[in-house]
């Protein structure tokens, strides 16, 4: 099957061809006809399957059918995402697919000034990609109305629920018209997702490219058993011995991310960490360096890595297993994207057996395990520490940790208290929580001036 057989507008097909796509992926083959027919959709697909194009292409086609009705531009399509990074990724994809269409697209997320969003809305917006928190800010300020909305998309709905956005989502739903098309996509089909779908969707078409809660078949999964205290040593050994040049490493906390990155730098591996406490500039630089090959290892927390789209990422390492089993699926979904092969290795210590059982139960698979010579586990209970570091004593979850500048100045030896020089910086203030948190990453490159402030105008109007 080709895209030409799906009934899409010639302008959309032209953009698809220019982007180098020839044949639709399985989810696109199923989703595009359903969306074109005006049906609500409940879709499950792993990341990297072409899901974004699966809902974007038919959405653009339907918007074109009713374009030019006159009057001031109103938001006619809304895409909700859990994180800033995913909003940027989806928004930029929409802009590319709509290159030959007269639509104005706005990407809005928290953590940056709202002023550019307000200015863009005054000019008129057809398609809005937003995180729940920023959208509620805009609605509260009466900056926009959603009474003309035709299509609503909830992307990675499972993550939105995990991050506590359910209350925000329900508040947003009250501002939407009853008559609309709703598309809900999730990597997993939990009971909570099914309940949300029952509330929002009307007789939806179920699209399930792979079995619910499954992992991508092209990802080779394996477990290496090792004592927690030797994980960092083993990780550096594996990367060096195999000459891996691009590795994404997952950890549970911001503190561990910073500490692991610092110690791997000492091992001679170019490493950076990304997490919610890093500044926007630091995250952008880290991602750019990782993409360009200037950085060999990227250490990330689950929230920070959400929505990462890195081409040809061959290796994902779980330095620690996630506390929530579903996060394992999201983690290893960073590799093996769009049909490419990939490898996901989990370093598992004795104290992580419960998490491992939960993961294997979720995916319905017993992951092959092995022990590497020289790194045989002792079988003794392990303390949650990294080699050469103090024990982790359950730090406050949202407290800011040492930034890159501080790490660079830290002495290699001796861990005495720093001298009081009055220069200590306080942890970054947190915005008032509405039940969810706009987290994640901002765009990974500086946009051209025409796209600055996450606003793209393809309308060709003065």
From TrEMBL:
For this chain, one GO molecular function annotation is: RNA helicase activity
The record's InterPro entries line, in alphabetical order, gives: DEAD/DEAH_box_helicase_dom (IPR011545), DEAD/DEAH_RhlB (IPR044742), DEAD_box_RNA_helicase (IPR050079), Helicase_ATP-bd (IPR014001), Helicase_C-like (IPR001650), P-loop_NTPase (IPR027417), RNA-helicase_DEAD-box_CS (IPR000629), RNA_helicase_DEAD_Q_motif (IPR014014)
**Family designation:** Belongs to the DEAD box helicase family.
E.C. no:
3.6.4.13
Lineage per the UniProt record: Bacteria
Name the UniProt record assigns to this protein: RNA helicase
Gene Ontology CC, one term: cytosol
* Pfam families in the cross-refs: DEAD (PF00270), Helicase_C (PF00271)
> Where does the Helicase ATP-binding domain start and stop, copy by copy?
32-207
Keyword annotations? ATP-binding, Cytoplasm, Helicase, Hydrolase, Nucleotide-binding
Where does motif Q motif map? Answer: 1-29
- Record domain Helicase C-terminal: where: 218-379
List, as start-end ranges, the regions of compositional bias called Basic residues.
Answer: 402-417
PANTHER family per UniProt = ATP-DEPENDENT RNA HELICASE RHLE (PTHR47959:SF13), ATP-DEPENDENT RNA HELICASE RHLE-RELATED (PTHR47959)
Q: Where is this region: Disordered?
A: 374-462
Q: Which organism is it from?
A: bacterium 19CA06SA08-2
Domain DEAD-box RNA helicase Q positions: 1-29
Top-tier EC class: hydrolase
Q: Which reaction does it catalyse?
A: ATP + H2O = ADP + phosphate + H(+)
């Amino acid at each position: 099957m080709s895209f030409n057989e799906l009934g899409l507008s010639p302008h959309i097909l032209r953009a698809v061809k220019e982007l180098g796509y020839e044949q639709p992926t399985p989810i696109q083959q199923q989703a595009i006809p359903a969306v074109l027919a005006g049906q609500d959709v409940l879709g499950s697909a792993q990341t990297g399957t072409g899901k974004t194009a699966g809902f974007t292409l038919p959405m653009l086609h339907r918007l074109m059918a009713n374009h030019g009705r006159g009057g001031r531009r109103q938001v006619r399509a809304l895409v909700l995402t859990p994180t800033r990074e995913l909003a940027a990724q989806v928004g930029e994809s929409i802009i590319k697919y709509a290159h030959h269409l007269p639509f104005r697209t706005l990407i809005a997320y928290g953590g940056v000034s709202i002023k550019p969003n307000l200015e863009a809305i005054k000019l008129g917006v057809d398609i809005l990609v937003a995180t729940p928190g920023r959208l509620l800010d805009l609605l509260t300020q009466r900056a926009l109305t959603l009474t003309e909305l035709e299509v609503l998309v909830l992307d990675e709905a499972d993550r939105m629920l995990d991050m506590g956005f359910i209350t925000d989502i329900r508040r947003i739903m009250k501002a939407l018209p009853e008559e609309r098309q709703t598309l809900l996509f999730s990597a997993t089909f939990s009971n909570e997702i099914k309940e949300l779908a029952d509330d929002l969707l009307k007789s939806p078409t179920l699209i399930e490219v792979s079995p619910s809660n499954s992992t991508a078949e092209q990802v080779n999964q394996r477990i290496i058993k090792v004592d927690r205290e030797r994980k960092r040593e083993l990780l550096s050994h594996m990367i060096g011995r195999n000459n891996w040049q691009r590795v994404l490493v997952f950890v549970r906390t911001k503190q561990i991310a910073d500490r692991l990155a610092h110690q791997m730098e000492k091992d001679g591996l170019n490493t950076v960490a990304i997490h919610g406490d890093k500044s926007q500039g630091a995250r952008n630089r880290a991602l750019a360096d990782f993409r360009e090959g200037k950085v060999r290892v990227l250490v990330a927390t689950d929230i920070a890595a959400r929505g990462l789209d890195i081409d040809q990422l061959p290796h994902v390492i779980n330095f620690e297993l996630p506390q929530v089993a579903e996060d394992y699926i999201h983690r290893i979904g960073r590799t093996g994207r769009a049909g490419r092969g990939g490898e996901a290795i989990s370093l598992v210590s004795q104290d992580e057996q419960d998490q491992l059982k939960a993961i294997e139960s979720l995916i319905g698979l017993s992951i092959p395990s092995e022990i590497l010579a020289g790194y045989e586990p002792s079988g003794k209970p392990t303390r949650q520490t990294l080699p050469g570091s103090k024990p982790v004593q359950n730090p406050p979850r949202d407290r800011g940790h040492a930034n890159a500048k501080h790490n660079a100045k830290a002495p290699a030896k001796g861990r005495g208290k720093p001298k009081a020089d009055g220069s200590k910086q306080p942890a970054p203030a947190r915005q008032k929580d509405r039940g969810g948190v706009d987290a994640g990453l901002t765009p990974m490159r500086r946009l051209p001036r025409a796209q600055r402030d996450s606003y793209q105008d393809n309308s060709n109007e003065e």
